[in-house]
Design brief:
The structure holds two protein chains of two kinds. By secondary structure, chain A is an all-alpha fold. Chain A contains 16 helices and two strands. Chain A has helices at residues 2-14, 22-47, 53-83, 100-106, 109-140, 147-155, 162-172, 179-186, 201-209, 213-225, 229-237, 242-270, 274-279, 293-303, 307-332, 343-352, and strands at 86-87, 95-96. The longest helix of chain B has 20 residues, at 2-21. The chains are: A mainly alpha, B alpha/beta.
């Protein structure tokens, strides 16, 4: 690929095209050729009456996504799968090693620690985020004067995420100069060392994850506002109190939204990287207490230059996320309510299969 | 219409294929000019220094154009991925510690070792008995002290030429420590274990690079000193207190009396202070390991690029025009590696004894080149920090270090 780009770049140089424009023009030319070939192929198939106009239109319109997927997702995935059976340091030629990387993973104590840290984080932070964001959404759904101001205040922290959030919390949790221990000192409490203490580092990062509940709150709020009012009116006539309405109407009605947030939250938590990387300076924290799975994968790929092993770790993570997501999907039959499907029927289907 | 479109696509395809099959313009002579790319790391000021050196080269060699590729962070990761992706820079800056991992990406080069005044610099571009890179800058370490603090504590100011013993350093640091709470003055900034290991006469590996040796008595003594320094009532701020703090500023503000691990990047900063109040002295004991950065030429560079790259590396490593620019009052990339530029270097801050940096280059202890060094030392350092009070642990270094040495040996054997 780089040979083609280099060739095009040289060609544009001979046409005296400005140096800064050559890379982007090379890409445009390649894309034009790819889509031109797709268009020409479809046109030929249409002329030969192999496909209908509708089918040709479908493939034409879907082709940008397919090309993007093949180049930027599917291709690299296949490549990483191949690499997972190789030993490659990026400089010397790759050597085929069969299942050696997967065998190494089975006996790697650091990988065990990384899985433990990541699963603990996912299992604790996702339910906490769900409870907090749903609770806040319920409060923000109350019609009182100025509620929009409160909604904005709750949402604002979600705009400070990633590296900025991690850097901010390094200072918030600083044992000597941090905000948290400063507040605790006002009450005569000598706070823990947080990110410097193997026992407190992960809880600190879990607390950090609650900073962005405003994003999920907005989704819950939208779900809550979609709950039909007539259900509450009917419940009120039947004598249901607030608690019964919440338990029997609100939660079942927003359960698909909770399900969505839990699934995406779980997948996101399993892929946690930035917090671990920034907070520990790519180290893993005290006693590897913040050695998240993806951080360890990154270290193997880009610090230890074991690209084959890192690829194997990526595929193991992919399998783990698939299994966890499948379990959550299976479990959803017992608690997610869809108006178009009765939970009992779905539960029966789970048991039958 | 359709026919025209098809014809246009076909024409574009042939055009692109023709472009691909024809010779690339990379580095090729354009009106007699050869273009090479040069990758390097550094801060904004250091990049400005490097660009000034490039400008001096282009002025002296108008037929060669150097495209700077300043990589601000994660240099080695980005360099390695660019090599893997077939886009290796023609010339890349590389440290002596990273050379073993990158040697196979570079051409073998001829290095004129007679231009260097330091034996450590002469060896810096060598791996496996062959030269793969041309050394051009040394980054030796010294210690900065506050003369005021020594005078106030009644402690004799250390010699600018002869290193203190490590025991004398500890004794002085204790005497220089005073006060408590926010007003506490520390005798020293925190000690860096890897550096103190060398100061105490130890090392990570044996001279042949085949044995891990950090669990020897020297290593244990070094770890014990680092731990004792940050104990309650110790002479250095602990990890939590020092985190995110600029220790140079603490020295300038009188909060620490000695700043070991003082590298060239601080030269411009100390030159800007009242230089009569500060002094640079050699690090205690055997000093700290020195980094030497060299220039490697990409294996896949063509003939013209290789010739231009050789001219460039020679200019950067052996001419006063380039070497005099390495350190100025605005920014210091490192210490010149040729004798002819040392007077210019010392003139940046004549009162603070920059000669100590030069002595450290001459007397530097070099560590053997080891493959998989980053992985081995990362594992060691992580465990040492987790288990002992050098980091967040509580275990006795005398127990931990021999165990970690055994772990290190396993990884070293696997790498070899």
């Amino acid at each position: 690929m780089s040979g083609i780009v280099d060739g095009l770049s040289g060609f544009l140089e001979r046409l005296h095209v400005d140096e800064g424009l050559r890379p982007i023009l090379s890409l445009v030319i390649i894309l034009a050729i790819v889509f031109g070939l797709i268009g020409a192929g479809l046109w030929g198939a249409l002329r030969a009456r192999w496909i209908s106009r509708n089918t040709a239109a479908f493939w034409l319109f879907v082709s940008p996504w397919i090309v993007g997927f093949v180049i930027f997702t599917g291709g690299p995935m296949v490549y990483s799968l191949v690499l997972s059976f190789m030993d490659w340091d990026l400089i010397d030629p790759a050597k085929f090693t069969g299942l050696a990387n997967y065998k190494e993973a089975l006996s790697d104590p650091k990988l065990g620690q990384a899985i433990k840290v990541t699963l603990t984080y996912a299992v604790v932070s996702v339910p906490l985020q769900t409870l907090l964001s749903l609770g806040v959404a319920l409060l923000m759904n109350v019609r009182v004067r100025g509620v929009n101001v409160f909604r904005t205040i709750w949402y604002l922290p979600s705009l400070v995420t990633g590296v900025a959030q991690a850097v901010l919390f390094i200072w918030v949790f600083h044992p000597s100069y941090g905000l948290v221990n400063g507040l605790l000192r006002l009450f005569g409490v000598d706070g823990p060392k947080w990110l410097f203490d193997a026992g407190w580092a992960l809880p600190a990062v879990i607390l950090m994850s609650l900073w962005t509940v405003g994003g999920n709150m907005i989704i819950y709020l939208a779900g809550l506002q979609d709950v039909p009012k007539n259900l509450y009116e009917a419940a009120e006539i039947d004598g249901a109190g607030r608690w019964h309405s919440l338990w029997h109407i609100t939660l079942p009605q927003v359960s698909p939204v909770i399900f969505f947030n839990v699934v995406t939250g779980l997948i996101g938590a399993m892929q946690t990287f930035t917090q671990g990387y920034v907070v520990t300076h790519n180290g893993g924290g005290p006693s590897d207490s913040l050695l998240f799975y993806v951080l360890y994968l990154y270290q193997n790929a880009f610090s230890f230059f074991q690209m084959g092993y890192a690829s194997a770790l990526a595929w193991i993570l992919f399998a783990m996320i698939m299994v966890l997501t499948a379990l959550v999907f299976r479990g959803s039959a017992f608690w997610v309510y869809y108006e178009s499907q009765r939970p009992k029927e779905r539960r029966r289907r789970v048991h039958v299969s | 219409m359709h026919r025209k479109a098809l014809a246009a696509v076909t024409a574009a395809s042939f055009l692109a294929l023709a472009a691909c099959s024809s010779e690339s313009g990379d580095g090729a002579a354009s009106a007699g000019t050869t273009t090479i790319s040069y990758a390097f790391w550094g801060t904004t000021d250091e990049a400005a220094t490097m660009k000034a050196m490039i400008a001096a080269f282009e002025k002296a060699n108008p037929t060669i154009k150097v495209e700077p590729n300043w990589i601000q962070s994660d240099y080695e990761q980005k360099l390695q991925t660019s090599i893997a992706g077939g886009g290796a820079p023609t010339v890349a800056e590389i440290s002596d510690t990273s050379l073993p991992s990158f040697a196979n990406a570079f051409q073998k080069v001829e290095v004129d070792k007679s231009v260097y005044y330091s034996p450590a610099v002469q060896r810096a571009g060598t791996f496996g008995g062959a030269d793969y890179a041309v050394p051009f800058v040394a980054k030796s370490k010294v210690m900065a002290i506050s003369k005021d603090a020594f005078d106030k504590a009644g402690v004799a100011v250390p010699s600018g030429a002869t290193p203190m013993t490590t025991a004398d350093f500890v004794a002085a640091a204790k005497k220089l420590t005073s006060g408590s709470g926010p007003k506490k003055v520390y005798g020293s900034a925190p000690l860096w274990y890897d550096g103190w290991l060398i100061a105490e006469g130890g090392s990570y590996y044996s001279a042949d690079g085949k044995q891990c040796t950090m669990g020897n008595p020297d290593g244990i003594r070094a770890a014990q000193t680092v731990v004792d320094a940050v104990k309650t009532g110790g002479f250095a701020p602990n990890q939590a207190d020092a985190q995110g703090q600029d220790m140079f500023q603490w020295l300038a503000d009188g909060k620490v009396a000695m700043l070991p691990d003082f590298g060239p990047w601080n030269i411009a900063k100390i030159a800007a202070l009242d230089t009569s109040k500060f002094l640079i002295v050699p690090l205690p004991g055997k000093g700290e390991p020195m980094e030497v950065d060299s220039l490697g030429i990409a294996k896949d560079a063509n003939e013209a690029e290789t010739a231009a790259a050789k001219t460039f590396t020679k200019f950067m490593s052996s001419t006063p025009d380039a070497q005099n620019l390495l350190a100025t009052t605005k920014s210091a990339l490192g210490i010149p590696v040729i004798q002819g530029s040392l007077d210019a270097f010392k003139s940046i801050a004549p009162k603070v004894n920059l000669q100590a940096f030069i002595d450290a280059v001459k007397n530097a202890v070099t560590t053997p080149a080891v493959k998989d060094k980053v992985r081995i030392e990362s594992a060691f350092s992580g465990d040492l920090n987790s288990r002992t009070a050098i980091g967040s642990g509580t275990e006795d270094p005398a127990v931990v270090l021999p165990q970690l040495q055994a772990e290190c040996q396993k990884l070293l054997d696997a790498a070899q």
